[in-house]
Design goal:
Leucine Aminopeptidase, subunit E, domain 1, Aminopeptidase, 15 helices, alpha/beta, 8-stranded mixed sheet, 20 strands
């Protein structure tokens, strides 16, 4: 969808959107539209349940006296609660309300209300951002869709007095939106299209933006002795890959060490010999969503020229049952030298991440490592599909990530680590096993496993995104399907905590 900004609130065609605050308080634009339509706005409000509550909408079709096809009133709730995230949600609501109409263009007029927590220009940028992200649609394989079933809205213009400031505020957000769309496409693709090789090929495209990309094939992975990652991959005809991406946006920084992001990239997860039930196994095409988010994040940082040194590493495998597949009871030696007894081949993501995070630390010497993975069903039992779980070895890092989540709308809830949990993954015949002894605390067992591969002095956080990588219903900025969760969150974390100031 095309996004533009203007200082004029007079639409030439299509729909016009006006904001209304709680208590039926009309914005300046809504008041003008009411006068021009001989009171149609107030009559429509009085004839409905619309009161201007947050994300309420009311459409007035073909109003007299106004040069537009429809007026859409959008509630913002109480002005003193209207911040950037609320504006983002309003943009998503606006797109959802207009996408199924016959309108191809719309103009959103952003007026100030006393007490608003966000400047109108910033609100305008966030409205555009929310609408853009909500407009995502993965329809490349639909060949017989009727035109009337397709969304028609193709252009959104946001009117605000300081349109130049709004345009400047939106510019980096638009680049992040492109990266999120890129990741959503990767996660949405079926496993016969996206496999370790083709996903690595997609990561290579980041070189156009100045990202240094290195792809390790099986011989290189074997030379590095990544036995845990190779063990997961050995049942598939699709060869594994490890991809390292580097963005050097802060060459003049005193501390040249990068912040690192590591992603689980299981392009399809059958569970291996510990095979999953058939029901919903098709969903396991998105078990590479952690890797997809890391690739998208690196694209976003490069596209907006972030002033940070950042590294992204993804371990890419396919977990299949076959005559060559890893068996329960096998023992593998990781790149770190630690050995793992594989109790359950469906707990494969932590095996991939163990080698990937060790390689990342040895190769790039980061000060901080954040890994993302659709790691456990247990995190869905704990948190549902509302928040991702965060585990960390430092309180300050956890706090910064949680704050970035609140600011971006990609929320995190801190989960526990501890010595008792760690002892639960001790093995009788190896250094550790890849699952705990029972059904309890499954997400923590996975996090404790990864923690054993974090070197002394490195700050680390693990994000278990299994419940949020795929949206089962429409959410603000996220239509049903691949969410791209983690990109907005970590882009905000980098912007607030890692970029050098100039």
């Amino acid at each position: 969808m095309r996004i533009d900004f203007t200082a004029s609130a007079a639409p030439r065609a299509g729909a016009i959107v006006a904001l209304v605050a709680d208590g039926k308080t009309l914005s300046q634009t809504a008041q003008r539209l009411d006068r021009d339509s001989s009171g149609a706005v107030k009559r429509a409000i009085n004839a409905s349940k619309f009161k201007g509550g947050k994300d309420q909408t009311l459409a007035i079709v073909a109003p007299r006296g106004v040069r537009c096809s429809r007026i859409l009133l959008v509630g913002i709730g109480k002005p003193d609660g209207y911040d950037a995230l609320a504006a983002f949600g309003a943009g998503s609501t606006i797109y959802a309300a207009l996408a199924g109409t016959a309108d191809t263009a719309a103009l959103v007029s952003v007026d100030a209300f006393p007490g608003m927590k966000v400047e109108p220009a910033e609100a305008a940028a966030q409205i555009a951002y929310g609408a853009q992200l909500r407009s995502y649609r993965f329809d490349k394989y639909r060949t017989k869709e009727k035109p009337e079933d397709k969304p028609t809205l193709a252009a959104l213009t946001v009117a605000v007095r300081n349109d130049r400031a709004a345009r400047a505020a939106y510019a980096p957000l638009g680049r992040v939106a492109e990266a999120i769309f890129f990741t959503r496409d990767l996660v949405s693709e079926p496993a016969n299209i996206i496999n370790p090789k083709t996903l690595a090929d997609q990561a290579r495209t980041l070189t156009k933006l100045g990202v240094k990309v290195e792809v390790l094939d099986r011989p290189k992975i074997e030379k590095l002795k990544m036995g845990a990652l190779l063990g997961v991959a050995q049942g598939s005809e699709n060869e594994p890959r490890v991809v390292a991406m580097r963005w050097d946006g802060a060459r003049r920084a005193k501390d040249k060490r990068p912040v690192a992001f590591v992603g689980k990239g299981v392009t399809f997860d059958t569970g291996g010999i510990s095979i999953k039930p058939a029901a919903s196994m098709e969903d396991m095409k998105w078990d590479m969503a952690g890797a997809g988010a890391v690739i998208g994040l690196m694209r976003a940082l490069a596209a907006r020229k972030a002033k940070v040194n950042a590294v992204g590493v993804v371990g890419l495998v396919e977990n299949m049952p076959s005559a060559t597949a890893q068996r329960p009871g096998d023992v593998v030696r990781t790149m770190s030298g630690q050995t793992v007894e594989v109790i359950n081949t469906d707990a494969e993501g932590r095996l991939v991440l163990g080698d990937a995070v060790w390689y990342c630390q040895k190769q790039f010497k980061p000060h901080t490592v954040v890994d993302l993975a659709t790691l456990t069903g247990a995190i869905i039992v704990a948190l549902g599909h509302e928040q991702a779980g965060v585990f960390a070895n430092e309180d300050a890092l956890a706090d910064k990530l949680i704050a970035a989540g609140k600011a971006s709308g990609e929320n995190l809830w801190r989960m526990p680590l501890g010595e008792a949990y760690d002892k639960d993954i001790n093995s009788d015949i190896a250094d550790m096993k890849n699952v705990g002894s029972g059904r309890g605390a499954g997400s923590t067992a996975g996090a404790q496993f990864i923690k054993r591969f974090i070197q002394d002095g490195v700050k680390w956080a693990h994000l278990d995104i299994a419940g949020v990588a795929w949206a089962t219903k429409d959410r603000p900025g996220v239509p049903k399907g691949a969410s791209g969760f983690g990109i907005r969150l970590l882009d905000r974390y980098v912007a607030d905590n890692c970029e050098i100031k100039v």
